[in-house]
Amino acid sequence: MKNHRRLIGGILGLLVASIQIAPVPIAAGQTASLPHPAEKTPLLQRATTKTDSLQPSLCLQQEAELPIQGGKLRGTLFTPTSVKKPPVVLIIAGSGPTDRDGNSPLLPGKNNSLLQLADSLATHGIATLRYDKRGVANSQIKQLREEQMQFSDGVEDVIGWIRWLRQQGFRKIYVAGHSEGSLVGLGAAQTEKISGFISLAGAGRSIDAVLREQFTAGGGPDSLKKLAGRYLDTLLMGQRIAKPHPLLFSLFRPSVQPYMISWLQYDPQELMRALHCAALIIQGTNDLQVKETDARLLAAAKPTATLVLIQHMNHVLKKIDSPVPAVNIASYSNPKLPVMTELVNEITRFVKGKFN
């Protein structure tokens, strides 16, 4: 199928301010056997000047592959050389066709947020694995069809990567999900034994609650908003919508409804409540997409979790002092703006056991 990157990812996409992006779902398939370890290549020490393509200092870079039905998922493992047996954080990208570095082809330029996060954690002696989701960037899938997609496929992929990390010899494995990746990671953490879970700007409500809020806040006639609500009710009952209204077709098109039905079954509060490991919940106060309320709902579901609100941090984990949405959105395409130091420090404290 042509142009997988625009087809795959989270349905919600980036519905912020003036940016309007058509919803696109995660691809289907099942996790297959684990690959053989890839050859490790030493990296040069990182330059002190900021560049679009960061290189972690004093660590090894390993290109990783995870076979799945119809293709392979590809990722990058950063392993610090200064630590004999470092902990590792599996980083799950957010919604839409967001790649392992935190960039999306639906937005101009790059922000490199997840690459920067991995790079910074490496300097603190923490390994990371980040990967391209199904159908995104270098993780292309043969004969991919939208109507076959299920949200649970993304969960199975995370389970596959956790097992891959164990195969590489890692024992202290943490899962960090950004935005929609938080829900995916929570799903995987229900069955896999991990050392800890990290939610980065993760929604604290089920997707139907989030969508209903967006319908209410968005433009358009009230009759159309009510119709969208009825469509969600139909999907929640596991039923299909035969002929969606043309103005709602992008979100409720028949081919994406199986994916949405599966997605609607995942409640982040219920999953957080059932989590059997330590949890760190991080939320920025200048996030246009996910609010502090969501983080507090997750924390309330698991009273033992650590909740951290980072002042001025936006959805792509960068510091934005301005309340102007356009300034905030500009950071989504600015690779020179680093992820916040407070974010890196909080994750480091959690992973190194000062929280748990």
Explain what this protein looks like in three dimensions.
- The protein is α/β, with parallel strands linked by helices and 356 residues long.
- It has 11 helices and 9 strands.
- It folds into 2 domains: 273 residues, 3-Layer(aba) Sandwich (Rossmann fold); 59 residues, no CATH class.
- Helices cover 30% and strands 16% of the residues.
- A 9-stranded mixed β-sheet has the order 1-2-3-5-4-6-7-8-9, sandwiched between helices.
- Strand 4, helix 1 and strand 5 form a beta-alpha-beta unit.
- The longest helix is centred in the middle third of the chain and has 17 residues.
Key phrases:
single chain; 356 residues; alpha/beta; Rossmann fold; 2 domains; 9-stranded mixed beta sheet; globular; disordered N terminus
Helix content: 25-40%
Q: What's the CATH architecture of the largest domain?
A: 3-Layer(aba) Sandwich
Structural class by secondary-structure content: alpha/beta
**What spatial order of strands do you see in the largest sheet?**
1-2-3-5-4-6-7-8-9
At the fourth level of CATH, the homologous superfamily of the largest domain is: Alpha/Beta hydrolase fold, catalytic domain
| Average of pLDDT | 84
